[in-house]
């Protein structure tokens, strides 16, 4: 049975560093036997379909190894199927339809983000910014955008995300990836 996935690459094409051209990323994914490969933006979003019954973790590891082999540097990736992405959007505790895309972000994690990790954050000190945890995701509401967010800096501290791969997407990208994974 064919399944469509999104591959979320972390920290590429930022200020001219760790360049991963999207055409080459598509070729890498096709080289792994995936089909209907598409990319979105230059920030490391790819969608692909595969007939394999491999788990997300297996697909993820294969992609990371292929990227390292092709480009010569390691890139952390998260591979998630379209149903998971849709479930994350559906479970969003914030009124996504009423917000601008830059005001709402999903920070995807490689594993569960236990509430204990974030328990010491004084949420009131950062209002009106807010966050909520979901299934391997942190929803981040930042009314003035992520670039001006103090809470965004706090929830992404390495001490809080230790042991997890984390990568953020604004809500416009979240919605587009859901659309792309459900086009087939």
Notes on the structure:
The protein is α+β, with helices and mostly antiparallel strands and 184 residues long. 30% of the residues lie in helices and 24% in strands. It has 6 helices and 8 strands. The protein has helices at 22-31, 56-71, 82-90, 150-155, 158-161, 171-181; strands at residues 3-9, 35-40, 45-50, 77-81, 104-109, 130-134, 137-141, 166-170. Strands 2-3-1-4 form a 4-stranded antiparallel beta sheet, with helices on both faces. Strands 6-7-5-8 form a 4-stranded antiparallel beta sheet. A hairpin with a 4-residue loop joins strand 2 (35-40) and strand 3. Helix 3 crosses helix 6. The longest helix has 16 residues, at 56-71. The model has no long low-confidence stretch (mean pLDDT 92).
DSSP, total strands: 8
Query: What would you call the structural class?
Result: alpha+beta
Low-pLDDT segments: none
Write down the overall mean pLDDT: 92
Q: What coarse outline follows from CA principal-axis ratios?
A: globular
Distance between the termini: 13 Å
How do the SSEs run, as a string of H and E?
Answer: EHEEHEHEEEHHEH
Radius of gyration from the alpha-carbon trace, in angstroms: 16 Å
How does the major sheet shape up?
4 strands, antiparallel
Work out the helix count.
Answer: 6
Helical residue percent band: 25-40%
Q: Order of strands across the biggest sheet?
A: 2-3-1-4
Quaternary class:
single chain
Strand percentage lies at 15-25%
